[in-house]
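To: structure desk
From: M.T.
Subject: fold request, one chain
Message: Could you run this one when you get a chance? Sequence is below, nothing fancy, just the single chain.
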Amino acid sequence: MKLLPKNVLAIDDSLTLRKFIEKSLAHEDCVNRLLLAPDAKTGLELAQAAAPDLILCDYTLPDMQGDELCRRLAENSETAHIPIILMSSSGREIAALSLNQSNIVRLLVKPFSRELLVVTISYVLSHWEQQKTVEETVGNSGSILMRGSTDASPMCSALRFIARQELTGILRVAVKKDTFHAFCQKGTVRVVSTRNVESYLEGTPYLTNGRKSLIWRKCEDLQRQTLSPFLLNLAQQGVLPAQTAKTLTDVYGHRLFARIWTEPSVNYEFEEAALPAFIDECSPARERMNDWILESLRNVDFSDDIRTIVEDPFGVPVFTPSGYRQLQEVRPQQDEWEVLTQINGGTSLTEICTRLQVQPDSVARKIFCFQRLGFLDYWPSYVLQPQN
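Reply: Done. Structure tokens follow.
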């Protein structure tokens, strides 16, 4: 999706930083017009008068703290929808904040590079554009309610949209040469399947290249034709106990969907549709979408993101502005809680591992899960180094 140029407002009392931002964005296609404000009062006035698409706001302003300014913007119906990137010269200062304003979407630690500034702005603008497109698509003619790419909007956003709207239908996700189908009922995911039976059963004792019985082949063919999961088909034939089939179908669905989280980019669409009869044979859905997402993320063994965390042991995991509040909406396991309770905005990966006496890759996987949920960020060690 090509991003149309947007208007950006930068609020900072430092003339040097305002000039740096102006110079950095001067030739960027994603920015149409840049507005600059030296204090909170001017920033509030410009935000209401010019209705920018994005606001960069310093945490420490001469006439008002940045989080207070963000709160006022959130309470004004004319500016509440504008996403805000909060800036500060102290990583530890804003990492420790318990910010609950939903309009604060990213944090930037000064000094930051031009490249980091541009990437952050581009990501936020494209994410909001995609979200707006998804919202506007609902209600249009046709049964496809949304289409998107994880380049522009994370998969979590699409799944949460399905949950908020309590949609029933099929979420199709293109992964390389395969397509995963997540069957959703009233905003919850009931089962995930694919016509590629070999991909579905990869790494399980049910994948065999040897001689197969007629019933076995029949159950495989049924999945290829109707997407009815293989193990449910075995249960229908009396080969597998029904409860075992339900449990393993749920497990295999999460394992299949977990492959999405390690792909650099996937395309997806959601079609509102009646569900096939085999849905009634599946396990009951999890009540909250975030719990379903978390269970899928737990099935990721390793990824480039996890490797990045492990290779920077002095980096610091921090809660995102709304992360701590959203944490109340999921059910972490005991070992996950033990890691989460160590996160205070100043404790590094190495310190967490030492305190809990666990290996870095184990902690990194848990940080990765909650990072993908949008609850955590992982700040590289270089942004926390004392500035000369």
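Reply (cont.): The first strand starts at residue 6 and ends at 11. Let me know if you need anything else for the meeting.
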